[in-house]
């Protein structure tokens, strides 16, 4: 297993390098001058030139990239153009919030999608199957921003069950933290629940048609044991794959949801960096998101071997 993980790490280095190249030069294409955003629309030319020189923005792009990459190899993601805060500190401050949101969304998705997919597979062709299939399709199709607004209107403004927006750290006030995170987690988890339900149904249907399942039924094994012990475990690999891909997307793609519910996570950090043309922050966030996707995908590969003993990494 260790040689396999080392090989995956070596294989990931070119990908991360390409991500760094793309994100560095694409951020420079964004319209707008960060110096003008810092000093105003009509700054003093001498002051603007001095600020540009202090930020290193007066050097050629290739020189800027080489300098940033060299600092990156030393563990330095640079400093925010906006206020000089180290980018690593900003990421460490925002990452736990996004991790919490992604974890809660994943739990919501599993709690809804997994049982629904099992029921749809076991009751194939019945009204339950049709209900799960149509509902999962609706969950995948509804945009996050629309669902989030509707949830705020119904459960916050109309019923008053939960606060509409905001964020409190979990270790400061656990109860209020969970109340504030319920609606964002449901918003993000709904689409994922639809995908999990569909993959669970299709994968489980394929497994339930195998000969060993019919043999287990002929030996008198209960239907619940056949489905949960023999069927679901063997159908788990496609489900785990979807979970891994979606979790990587949740870590870097919760921009809209965090904006709607005023959650200070990665999404808010990206939006603020784009509006202020804070290149170094944007580069650090995108690179960290790419690294998170790599870590999640590697963890999914390791889970394959734990789920299916026939899989071995040499």
From TrEMBL:
Name a GO molecular-function annotation. Answer: dipeptide transmembrane transporter activity
User: Which GO CC terms are listed, alphabetically?
Assistant: plasma membrane
- Record's keyword annotation contains Plastid: no
Q: Which domain of life is it from?
A: Bacteria
Pfam families, per the entry: BPD_transp_1, BPD_transp_1_N
**Entry's localization field:** Cell membrane
Q: Which family does it belong to?
A: Belongs to the binding-protein-dependent transport system permease family.
| Name used for this protein in its record | ABC transporter permease
